[in-house]
From TrEMBL:
Keywords: Membrane, Transmembrane, Transmembrane helix. The chain crosses the membrane at residues 272-295, 307-327, 362-380, 400-420. One of its GO terms (molecular function) is phosphoric diester hydrolase activity. This is Uncharacterized protein. It comes from the Bacteria.
């Protein structure tokens, strides 16, 4: 009988260890949330965009992936967040995680990693304007006074665009008649039902010789263009190139040197552990408890104490096992091949280390369940024994009490180790603007990518746009501050006065008055316009509703709007109310010098939209004048060499700092944007301005945010502030 009790005791301890390990596996290796948590902890999505895919050394690894897209590799990389927005990448990644989990659980016999590229194909349609804008932004400008030669060059450029080639663009000087002839030529390849909508933008651009903007507007509408926006043939060709819309990830991983054999080994462990082993451990554990209870010490309280000891020993052994695993975790990390670029190898290694650490932490938590329960049972049995020595309970009462404790004990042995890791990994971590670390920063300590004249976009057919993507896409691509202009539709006699204050080139101001009046009659309501609404406008309330929907879809994001207010404060407040945004609006302290809350506090309170006016303030308490709270740099730079940090509007001691980082020379400059939006250029100027002005740069306002890598610079500024 003694040997039977010893054997049952050993088996009970082993079963506790096995069940704790199995529960940890279920909550980590076989949990979808575990993988996403590891990816988020290591900022994998941000690092993919900002480090790996922009690293020239990563091209051999990424080329086979990007080659499936009928857009040049460099263009796809530069505009990756338009082709593959973070939300799309998360969905695609989640599907691969589900496929891996199905394999590890034994639901499928073979590992199938196949990505449905349908979302990518859809996003390529939105890339049209951005892609063509990138093509023309780097073209050399040259004068061309000969109309026939100019038209011939434009015709050649159209052929190049339709074939996906980079065009050689002329810089033309055209009179009114030539503008109309050039517009007719550019629109000739566009479907008839789309021509009138594009005509104002094309005519306005050609009026100042801006062939780049004209082609960027027309190109995506050309039938058959390989930019992805030109009809069925392009879509069919793309699907054919993309292997029917499916990408075999497993094959590419094996070709790149990844060790997929490790998954097969893991599948053998999980299949065995969570199948036969877990079932046997449960059955044997229950049997061992029954044997020890029936054949244990004569007094039941002693039996209870013995079971508590076994439970505590099992928990302690589990803890030791996972401590040893943690000590040896580095040896588990797979070393990527030497041919892999350092940025990609570092990301993979960091993910493995974080996953191993999280796995062992979950195991240690699981070990606390039997350890704590065992100690509790031991303490309870001691109390019961002392009370029994002083005043004995009736046999019936003692029997019920001990039976209840025994049932709880058995449930703890069988269920506790499996349930606790799930509960532990189920807690949600707060992320602020995509980073857990940023949550600790105050609003006035963090840096935000800001888009200058956010509403003036190629996508919304503005004449001489300053952004390519619409506002929602800008937010998707990392913008967290929107600089917009509010207006009511101008009367004809107001156009000249508005143009004097605009950033349009002098020649365009002369031409545009008659052109835009014919193309776009006055319309009532409140609008977001760049200087004059006839040159491009989007409805204010509708756009605010889009911003609100985006914020609802991204509950951890804080967004700022700085409004060049051409309408009254009452009209602005009414628009925000009609858009349903009052619930999200943060009200700054009436004292501009007061300390701002942390981003975490704003996220927790769901007050995640901060709105400033350039000129007025109020009457709504949340609508403050920006220059009472913030300061800025100049904004009328004509070339990169002129960019300084000297004070402009706002005193030099404000808590918020807006760095205007764009070139204005007869309108926005795509070519200069490609240069000054480079990561090092933005970061170095921000650091210089911070040193000169004594405050951290908060808002980095750029034109053509899709060109260059301004977001990576902003991320670098934030990383330095959270380290």
């Amino acid at each position: 009988m003694r040997r039977l009790r010893v054997l049952a005791s050993v088996l009970a301890v082993l079963c506790v260890v096995v069940l704790a390990c199995a529960g940890t596996l279920r909550a980590t290796v076989l949990s979808r949330g575990f993988y996403q948590s590891v990816l988020d902890d290591e900022r994998a999505y941000d690092r993919l965009y900002d480090e790996v895919l922009v690293d020239p050394k990563a091209q051999p690894v990424t080329r086979s992936l990007l080659a499936r897209l009928p857009v040049p590799e460099a263009v796809v990389t530069a505009n990756l967040k338009t082709v593959l927005p973070p939300a799309t990448v998360r969905k695609l990644t989640d599907r691969q995680i589900a496929a891996v989990l199905g394999y590890l659980r034994g639901d499928t016999d073979a590992l199938h990693l196949s990505v449905d590229l349908t979302p990518v194909l859809a996003n390529l349609n939105n890339l049209g304007e951005v892609y063509l804008g990138s093509l023309v932004s780097s073209s050399e400008e040259r004068s061309e006074a000969d109309l026939d030669a100019a038209l011939k060059d434009m015709d050649t450029a159209l052929e190049d665009l339709s074939a996906g080639r980079k065009p050689d663009l002329p810089r033309v000087e055209l009179d009114d008649k030539a503008v109309k002839d050039g517009t007719r030529l550019l629109l000739s390849g566009v479907p008839e039902d789309e021509r009138e909508a594009l005509r104002p933008q094309v005519e306005g651009a050609l009026a100042v010789g801006d062939v780049a903007t004209a082609l960027a507007a027309v190109g995506p509408h050309l039938p058959g263009t390989t930019a992805g926006g030109g009809g069925k043939k392009a879509q069919q060709d793309l699907i054919r190139i993309a292997d029917g819309g499916q990408w075999d990830v497993a094959e590419d991983l094996q070709n790149s040197g990844a060790n997929t054999e490790a998954l097969k080994s893991a599948r053998g462990i999980t299949d065995l552990t969570l199948g036969l082993v877990q079932t046997l451990a449960t059955a044997i554990g229950i049997s061992a408890v029954v044997v020890l209870w029936l054949f244990g010490p004569r007094r039941r309280v002693h039996r209870l104490r013995h079971l508590g000891r076994l439970l505590a020993v099992g928990g302690a052994l589990t803890g030791v096992l996972f401590l040893l695993a943690r000590w040896r975790a580095d040896s588990w990390v797979w070393t990527p091949p030497a041919s892999w670029p350092p940025s990609l190898a570092a990301l993979v290694s960091d993910l493995e280390r974080t996953g191993a650490r999280s796995f062992t932490e979950a195991g240690l938590l699981a070990s606390l369940v039997p350890l704590g329960a065992g100690l509790l049972v031991i303490a309870l049995s001691a109390v019961m024994e002392r009370r029994a020595a002083g005043r004995r309970l009736s046999p019936r009462t003692r029997r019920y009490a001990l039976s209840g404790v025994g049932a709880a004990l058995t449930s703890t042995i069988v269920l506790g180790p499996a349930l606790l890791p799930t509960a532990a990994t189920g807690s949600e971590r707060v992320y602020c603007n995509g980073s857990a670390q940023l949550c600790d920063l105050r609003y006035d300590q963090a840096a935000y990518l800001a888009t200058h004249n956010s509403m003036s976009s190629t996508a919304d057919q503005f004449i001489s746009p300053l952004q390519d993507a619409d506002i929602t896409t800008q937010l998707d691509n990392g913008a967290r501050a929107l600089l917009v202009d509010t207006h009511t539709w101008e009367k004809r006699d107001e156009i000249a006065d508005r143009l004097k204050l605009s950033e349009f080139a002098p020649d365009m101001r002369k031409r545009v008055t008659g052109l835009i009046d014919k193309a776009s009659p006055a319309r009532p309501g409140l609008w977001l316009c760049h200087a004059i609404c006839r040159a491009g406008a989007v409805p204010l309330v509708d756009t605010l509703q889009e911003v609100g929907k985006w914020l609802d879809d991204h509950p951890g994001e804080v967004v700022t709007m700085i409004i060049q207010d051409g309408i009254s404060g009452e009209q602005t407040a009414s628009a925000f109310k009609r858009a349903g945004l009052e619930r999200l609006l943060y009200t700054p302290d009436s004292d501009p010098g007061a300390e701002w809350p942390t981003l975490e506090k704003m996220v927790e309170d769901n007050k995640r939209l901060v709105v400033f006016a350039e000129h007025q303030a109020g009457p709504a308490p949340w609508y403050r004048n920006f220059y009472r709270y913030g300061m800025e740099t100049p904004y009328a730079f004509k070339n990169p060499g002129e960019m300084t940090c000297v004070p402009n509007r706002g005193d030099n001691d404000k808590r918020l700092f807006l760095m205007n980082h764009f070139i204005t020379h007869g309108g926005g400059s795509r070519i200069d944007a490609g240069e000054i939006n480079a990561r090092d250029f933005v970061r170095d100027r921000a650091r210089r301005c911070e040193a000169e002005r004594g405050r951290p740069v908060n808002f980095v306002a750029v034109d053509f945010a899709n060109l260059g890598s301004a977001r990576a610079a902003v991320d670098a500024l934030n990383e330095a502030r959270t380290s």
